[in-house]
Write the structure tokens for this entry.
Amino acid sequence: MTSGVEAIAAAFAGDGRRAALMPYMMGGFPDLDTSRRVAEAYADGGADLVELGVPFSDPLADGPVIHAAGTAALRAGATTHGVLAVGRALAERVPVVAMVYANLVMARGLERFADDLAAHGISGLIVPDLPLEESDAVRAACDGAGLALVPLVAPTTPDERMARIGASARGFVYAVSVAGTTGERAAPADAYRDIVTRAKAATGVPVALGFGIGTPEQARTAADAGADGVIVGTRLVRAVAEAQDAPAAVHELIAQFARALS
Amino acid sequence: MSSAVEHRYGPYGGQYVPETLMPALAELEQAWVAARDDAGFREELEVLLRDFVGRPSPLYLAHRLSEVAGRRLYLKREDLNHTGAHKINNAIGQALLARRMGKRRIIAETGAGQHGVATATACALMDLECVVYMGVEDIRRQAPNVQRMNLLGATVSPVDAGARTLKEASSEAIRDWTTNVATTHYIIGSAVGPAPYPAIVRDLQRVIGDEARAQVLEREGRLPDRVIACVGGGSNAIGIFAPFVGDEGVELIGVEAGGEALEPGRHGAPLTVAGRPGVLHGSLSAVLQDEMGQILEAHSISAGLDYPGSGPEHAHLRDLGRARYLAVSDAEALETFRRVTRLEGIIPALETAHALHYALAPADSELDIVCCSGRGDKDLAEVLGQA
């Protein structure tokens, strides 16, 4: 069986694009059933990997759109277990990386949580509120289950620290394009280039750029800046919130992003 | 010389925040270590605490409360501080620190509004920009403090998420800090948050306990049997406890919000109910949460105790058996609020009324100090509305 780490490496190597397209979805939003169909649409639209958010009551790293989606998902009855089941179906088509806040991981127990993810065919884990200093035990649990614990780096991260984070990375490094929370925003192209260049110099694994990328043009700019992967989140979650037919809407959007990266 | 600032209290504490903030936390820690060893900084803080805040606050032997309790009961009068609560001790210190770091924009969260008012006051004094995040529900129940913050030139930013109280206000403040970290210092109001905040807030609030310990020794020639304080995040409690931790004979008691009942969603007493530890607002501590790890809403009649988390050092003191934590209900706090007002001519904050309620219950003690953490003017509308 292929490990999560290997599945992620293969997805980056074999994307056949300027950069791998990694859309984010909020699991269980607006409800588990729609969320399953949204996941299918992500795969149909051309996602190379999918980042699957598990809703949390207090998502410190997220802006208003993803925060509201998480709140709505919880209100609709989403559970960690239910969202991982969405991940299991999706993982049969593309590698899935779960984005989970630290308290949900710790509540389950680190080893058990990692084993749950692996049992659902999920390849990696991103914990947005688990910096390097707090991450040893979670990384060990992920390593034990063949999962990639993907760290984040930010524009505020100094080079020396980025090198230590880059050395600890499994799967890929998640580079945050701007200081701030998730959400669509304009950003100067040289900002993308600066963080991507510094992150790539700090690690041997691919670097995916996220936070604030909301248009196909921005995705193209990120790829041109050297990103190995492009993460699109809020734009798609907003589409799910606003569209009459959410799966059709995100399918079309992801196809547009895919074309921009072709 | 100082050692570095502690990051952990037993298993509790830590730095569970987005990577974007980690360099800012390191910068803050360095700045704090340098400032607290700098005689100039200490002198400036001491002068402001004396001449602007009005320190030392009196240790008052409450005669009529003592009669009711059947023991000598002293109040450490933090309610007499400028702005009416202990919160100013921390706000002034952190505002000085921010100025030293060259950060001209200050953000804060507030529940009851006391920390917001204290921060707005410190920012007016030092000519710093100030934005205070406050839940819509707390804006409703603490209207006088909102008016004070506006008068002081602060921007009160309403938070409409979740239960619209302190937890959501804290989350919004952290999101703002993540976005504006280059220009902004976040003045956390309680002994919570990622390291080094719990240590900084404790160090700045420790003046309460240092004074109280010296005052009681001078007045009584002995240490108290018990020191009692209310605990939301736990800043007034850790401030008065800190100098007594090494005094084995002094019992330390933290009083949490029992709310309507000790059932999920109806109280604010995570240390008392002692569930599984959890991560909230950047540190691991006693937290109200469900089996999955979703943080539960707290409930308390007092906005300052209406919080599902707690300071990590309190969780550690509890596990060590060095401090004890228990809960007093909304109804008990309201009853004591009225009773203390009539008996002593002191209108305590609803938060403080929790600690006073426990202090008046029968106990095997001869000498108690209660931290009278704040005054209750802000609570009149809420209390009279419950009549």
Remarks:
- Chain B touches chain A at residues 14-24, 161-162, 167, 171, 174-175, 178-182, 276, 278-282, 284, 287, 289, 291-296 (CB under 8 Å).
- DSSP finds 15 helices and 14 strands in chain B.
- Chain B has a mean pLDDT of 96.
- The first strand of chain B starts at residue 8 and ends at 9.
